[in-house]
Amino acid sequence: MTTAASRRSSDRRISPVFVGIVAVMAVTGWATWTGFAEQPGVAVFLFVTAAWIVSLCLHEYAHARTALHSGDISIGAKGYLTLNPLKYTHALLSIVLPVIFVIMGGIGLPGGAVFIERNRIQGRWKHSLISAAGPLTNVLFAVVCTAPFWLHALDGVPRDFQFALAFLALLQVTAALLNFLPVPGLDGYGVIEPWLSYNVKRQVEPFAPFGLLFVFAVLWIPSVNTAFFDVIHSLLNSLGINEIQTYCGQEFYRFWQGTNEFCSVS
Protein backbone atom coordinates (compact mmCIF):
# COMPACT_ATOMS: atom_id res chain seq x y z
CA MET A 1 0.00 0.00 0.00
CA THR A 2 1.34 3.41 -1.00
CA THR A 3 1.64 5.78 1.94
CA ALA A 4 1.31 9.56 1.85
CA ALA A 5 4.99 9.88 2.74
CA SER A 6 6.09 7.68 -0.18
CA ARG A 7 3.87 9.65 -2.56
CA ARG A 8 5.42 12.91 -1.38
CA SER A 9 8.87 11.40 -1.90
CA SER A 10 8.08 10.35 -5.47
CA ASP A 11 6.55 13.78 -6.16
CA ARG A 12 9.91 15.36 -5.36
CA ARG A 13 12.30 12.78 -6.80
CA ILE A 14 14.49 14.24 -9.55
CA SER A 15 13.29 13.02 -12.93
CA PRO A 16 15.52 10.79 -15.12
CA VAL A 17 14.66 13.18 -17.96
CA PHE A 18 16.33 16.05 -16.12
CA VAL A 19 19.30 13.83 -15.16
CA GLY A 20 19.69 12.94 -18.84
CA ILE A 21 19.71 16.62 -19.86
CA VAL A 22 22.34 17.37 -17.20
CA ALA A 23 24.40 14.43 -18.49
CA VAL A 24 24.30 15.83 -22.02
CA MET A 25 25.37 19.22 -20.68
CA ALA A 26 28.27 17.66 -18.75
CA VAL A 27 29.53 15.48 -21.62
CA THR A 28 29.31 18.20 -24.26
CA GLY A 29 30.79 20.73 -21.85
CA TRP A 30 33.74 18.37 -21.41
CA ALA A 31 33.98 17.94 -25.20
CA THR A 32 33.98 21.73 -25.65
CA TRP A 33 36.62 22.18 -22.96
CA THR A 34 38.97 19.47 -24.20
CA GLY A 35 38.43 19.99 -27.93
CA PHE A 36 37.49 16.31 -28.16
CA ALA A 37 34.70 16.96 -30.67
CA GLU A 38 35.74 16.91 -34.32
CA GLN A 39 33.40 19.85 -34.92
CA PRO A 40 33.60 22.22 -31.93
CA GLY A 41 30.42 23.99 -33.04
CA VAL A 42 28.36 20.83 -32.55
CA ALA A 43 29.68 20.43 -28.99
CA VAL A 44 29.01 24.12 -28.25
CA PHE A 45 25.49 23.81 -29.67
CA LEU A 46 24.64 20.77 -27.55
CA PHE A 47 26.29 22.20 -24.42
CA VAL A 48 24.56 25.58 -24.60
CA THR A 49 21.19 24.05 -25.55
CA ALA A 50 21.33 21.52 -22.71
CA ALA A 51 22.47 24.17 -20.21
CA TRP A 52 19.70 26.49 -21.40
CA ILE A 53 17.07 23.76 -20.88
CA VAL A 54 18.52 23.07 -17.41
CA SER A 55 18.14 26.76 -16.56
CA LEU A 56 14.54 26.72 -17.82
CA CYS A 57 13.79 23.73 -15.58
CA LEU A 58 15.38 25.47 -12.60
CA HIS A 59 13.40 28.63 -13.40
CA GLU A 60 10.11 26.74 -13.21
CA TYR A 61 11.29 24.74 -10.19
CA ALA A 62 11.99 28.00 -8.34
CA HIS A 63 8.41 29.16 -8.97
CA ALA A 64 7.05 25.81 -7.81
CA ARG A 65 9.24 25.43 -4.72
CA THR A 66 8.47 28.97 -3.57
CA ALA A 67 4.74 28.37 -4.11
CA LEU A 68 4.94 25.15 -2.08
CA HIS A 69 6.51 26.94 0.88
CA SER A 70 3.98 29.75 0.51
CA GLY A 71 0.98 27.46 0.91
CA ASP A 72 0.18 25.71 -2.40
CA ILE A 73 0.56 22.09 -1.31
CA SER A 74 -0.84 20.87 -4.65
CA ILE A 75 2.45 21.64 -6.40
CA GLY A 76 4.07 18.28 -5.63
CA ALA A 77 1.24 16.20 -7.08
CA LYS A 78 1.56 18.08 -10.38
CA GLY A 79 5.15 16.87 -10.77
CA TYR A 80 6.69 20.34 -10.78
CA LEU A 81 9.24 19.45 -8.11
CA THR A 82 10.81 16.65 -10.18
CA LEU A 83 12.47 19.11 -12.61
CA ASN A 84 10.89 17.15 -15.46
CA PRO A 85 10.14 19.61 -18.30
CA LEU A 86 7.50 17.20 -19.66
CA LYS A 87 5.39 17.88 -16.55
CA TYR A 88 4.97 21.56 -17.31
CA THR A 89 1.56 22.96 -18.18
CA HIS A 90 2.91 24.29 -21.50
CA ALA A 91 6.05 22.35 -22.38
CA LEU A 92 5.89 23.84 -25.89
CA LEU A 93 5.96 27.41 -24.58
CA SER A 94 8.51 26.79 -21.86
CA ILE A 95 11.00 24.47 -23.57
CA VAL A 96 10.51 24.13 -27.34
CA LEU A 97 9.88 27.78 -28.20
CA PRO A 98 12.72 29.11 -26.00
CA VAL A 99 15.16 26.74 -27.74
CA ILE A 100 13.85 27.79 -31.17
CA PHE A 101 14.29 31.46 -30.27
CA VAL A 102 17.86 30.79 -29.14
CA ILE A 103 18.58 29.13 -32.49
CA MET A 104 16.89 31.87 -34.51
CA GLY A 105 17.83 35.02 -32.67
CA GLY A 106 20.12 34.33 -29.75
CA ILE A 107 17.65 35.67 -27.22
CA GLY A 108 16.47 34.13 -23.95
CA LEU A 109 12.73 33.68 -24.27
CA PRO A 110 10.93 33.70 -20.92
CA GLY A 111 8.73 30.70 -20.18
CA GLY A 112 5.71 30.30 -17.97
CA ALA A 113 4.53 26.79 -17.33
CA VAL A 114 3.72 25.94 -13.73
CA PHE A 115 0.08 26.28 -12.69
CA ILE A 116 -0.07 27.69 -9.18
CA GLU A 117 -3.29 27.66 -7.18
CA ARG A 118 -3.04 31.24 -6.00
CA ASN A 119 -6.17 30.98 -3.84
CA ARG A 120 -4.20 28.75 -1.47
CA ILE A 121 -1.62 31.47 -0.83
CA GLN A 122 -2.17 34.31 1.61
CA GLY A 123 -0.19 37.55 1.60
CA ARG A 124 0.83 39.85 -1.21
CA TRP A 125 4.55 39.49 -0.52
CA LYS A 126 4.33 35.73 -1.01
CA HIS A 127 2.63 36.16 -4.38
CA SER A 128 5.30 38.64 -5.48
CA LEU A 129 8.12 36.37 -4.33
CA ILE A 130 6.69 33.40 -6.23
CA SER A 131 6.73 35.42 -9.45
CA ALA A 132 10.22 36.81 -8.79
CA ALA A 133 11.75 33.41 -7.97
CA GLY A 134 11.98 32.30 -11.61
CA PRO A 135 13.87 35.24 -13.11
CA LEU A 136 16.04 35.45 -9.99
CA THR A 137 17.18 31.93 -10.91
CA ASN A 138 18.24 33.26 -14.32
CA VAL A 139 20.16 36.02 -12.54
CA LEU A 140 21.93 33.43 -10.40
CA PHE A 141 22.70 31.31 -13.47
CA ALA A 142 24.13 34.41 -15.18
CA VAL A 143 26.35 35.11 -12.17
CA VAL A 144 27.71 31.56 -12.33
CA CYS A 145 28.33 31.73 -16.09
CA THR A 146 30.11 35.06 -15.86
CA ALA A 147 32.11 34.27 -12.70
CA PRO A 148 35.31 33.24 -14.56
CA PHE A 149 35.19 36.58 -16.41
CA TRP A 150 34.60 39.00 -13.52
CA LEU A 151 36.91 37.00 -11.27
CA HIS A 152 39.61 37.21 -13.95
CA ALA A 153 40.01 33.44 -13.76
CA LEU A 154 40.21 32.68 -17.47
CA ASP A 155 43.78 31.39 -17.46
CA GLY A 156 43.63 27.83 -18.69
CA VAL A 157 40.01 28.09 -19.83
CA PRO A 158 39.89 27.04 -23.52
CA ARG A 159 38.75 29.67 -26.00
CA ASP A 160 35.75 27.67 -27.27
CA PHE A 161 34.48 27.14 -23.73
CA GLN A 162 34.84 30.87 -23.00
CA PHE A 163 32.74 31.65 -26.06
CA ALA A 164 30.09 29.10 -25.05
CA LEU A 165 29.88 30.54 -21.52
CA ALA A 166 29.66 34.08 -22.88
CA PHE A 167 26.74 33.18 -25.16
CA LEU A 168 25.01 31.25 -22.39
CA ALA A 169 25.42 34.27 -20.11
CA LEU A 170 23.81 36.47 -22.76
CA LEU A 171 20.80 34.14 -22.85
CA GLN A 172 20.45 34.25 -19.07
CA VAL A 173 20.69 38.04 -18.91
CA THR A 174 18.13 38.52 -21.69
CA ALA A 175 15.78 36.02 -20.02
CA ALA A 176 16.06 37.77 -16.66
CA LEU A 177 15.58 41.24 -18.12
CA LEU A 178 12.61 40.25 -20.28
CA ASN A 179 11.00 38.30 -17.45
CA PHE A 180 11.21 41.25 -15.09
CA LEU A 181 9.36 43.56 -17.49
CA PRO A 182 6.04 44.61 -15.85
CA VAL A 183 4.06 43.31 -18.82
CA PRO A 184 0.95 41.14 -18.30
CA GLY A 185 1.85 37.50 -18.77
CA LEU A 186 5.45 37.95 -17.64
CA ASP A 187 6.88 37.44 -14.18
CA GLY A 188 7.56 41.15 -13.74
CA TYR A 189 3.84 41.84 -13.87
CA GLY A 190 3.28 38.96 -11.45
CA VAL A 191 5.55 40.74 -8.97
CA ILE A 192 3.49 43.94 -8.98
CA GLU A 193 0.04 42.45 -9.61
CA PRO A 194 -0.76 41.70 -5.94
CA TRP A 195 -0.33 45.39 -5.18
CA LEU A 196 -2.71 46.65 -7.90
CA SER A 197 -6.35 47.48 -7.37
CA TYR A 198 -9.03 45.00 -8.37
CA ASN A 199 -10.26 47.27 -11.18
CA VAL A 200 -6.79 47.59 -12.71
CA LYS A 201 -6.22 43.82 -12.57
CA ARG A 202 -9.61 43.15 -14.17
CA GLN A 203 -8.87 45.54 -17.04
CA VAL A 204 -5.38 44.13 -17.63
CA GLU A 205 -6.24 40.42 -17.35
CA PRO A 206 -7.54 39.97 -20.96
CA PHE A 207 -4.15 41.11 -22.31
CA ALA A 208 -2.07 38.58 -20.33
CA PRO A 209 -2.03 35.88 -23.06
CA PHE A 210 -0.63 38.40 -25.54
CA GLY A 211 1.99 40.08 -23.34
CA LEU A 212 4.93 38.03 -24.60
CA LEU A 213 3.87 38.47 -28.23
CA PHE A 214 3.66 42.22 -27.65
CA VAL A 215 7.18 42.31 -26.21
CA PHE A 216 8.68 40.48 -29.17
CA ALA A 217 6.71 42.56 -31.64
CA VAL A 218 8.22 45.67 -30.05
CA LEU A 219 11.69 44.09 -30.15
CA TRP A 220 11.35 43.73 -33.92
CA ILE A 221 11.48 47.53 -34.15
CA PRO A 222 15.16 48.18 -35.09
CA SER A 223 15.68 51.12 -32.73
CA VAL A 224 14.14 49.25 -29.79
CA ASN A 225 16.14 46.11 -30.60
CA THR A 226 19.35 48.11 -30.73
CA ALA A 227 18.60 49.84 -27.43
CA PHE A 228 17.69 46.52 -25.79
CA PHE A 229 20.92 44.82 -26.80
CA ASP A 230 22.92 47.91 -25.86
CA VAL A 231 21.59 47.42 -22.33
CA ILE A 232 22.37 43.68 -22.45
CA HIS A 233 25.92 44.23 -23.65
CA SER A 234 26.48 46.98 -21.08
CA LEU A 235 25.47 44.56 -18.33
CA LEU A 236 27.71 41.85 -19.75
CA ASN A 237 30.62 44.27 -20.12
CA SER A 238 30.27 45.16 -16.44
CA LEU A 239 30.64 41.43 -15.76
CA GLY A 240 33.77 41.13 -17.88
CA ILE A 241 32.27 39.76 -21.12
CA ASN A 242 32.74 41.72 -24.33
CA GLU A 243 30.70 41.66 -27.52
CA ILE A 244 33.34 39.68 -29.42
CA GLN A 245 33.00 36.81 -26.97
CA THR A 246 29.21 36.69 -27.16
CA TYR A 247 29.31 37.12 -30.96
CA CYS A 248 31.75 34.25 -31.39
CA GLY A 249 29.78 32.13 -28.94
CA GLN A 250 26.71 32.56 -31.11
CA GLU A 251 28.76 31.87 -34.25
CA PHE A 252 30.00 28.56 -32.81
CA TYR A 253 26.48 27.76 -31.64
CA ARG A 254 25.15 28.13 -35.18
CA PHE A 255 27.64 25.61 -36.50
CA TRP A 256 25.50 24.81 -39.55
CA GLN A 257 26.18 28.28 -40.94
CA GLY A 258 29.94 27.80 -40.82
CA THR A 259 32.12 29.44 -38.17
CA ASN A 260 33.38 32.93 -38.86
CA GLU A 261 37.12 32.82 -39.62
CA PHE A 262 37.69 35.69 -37.19
CA CYS A 263 36.31 33.61 -34.32
CA SER A 264 38.32 30.58 -35.36
CA VAL A 265 41.61 32.43 -34.96
CA SER A 266 40.67 34.79 -32.09
UniProtKB/TrEMBL annotation:
Membrane-spanning intervals of the chain: 17-36, 42-62, 91-116, 128-151, 163-186, 206-229
Highest taxon of the lineage: Bacteria
Protein name according to UniProt: Site-2 protease family protein
Keywords: Cell membrane, Hydrolase, Membrane, Metal-binding, Metalloprotease, Protease, Transmembrane, Transmembrane helix, Zinc
A GO MF term: peptidase activity
GO terms under biological process: proteolysis
Family, as annotated: Belongs to the peptidase M50B family.
Cofactors, names only: Zn(2+)
Membrane topology listed for this record: Multi-pass membrane protein
Compartments (UniProt record): Cell membrane
Main localisation: membrane
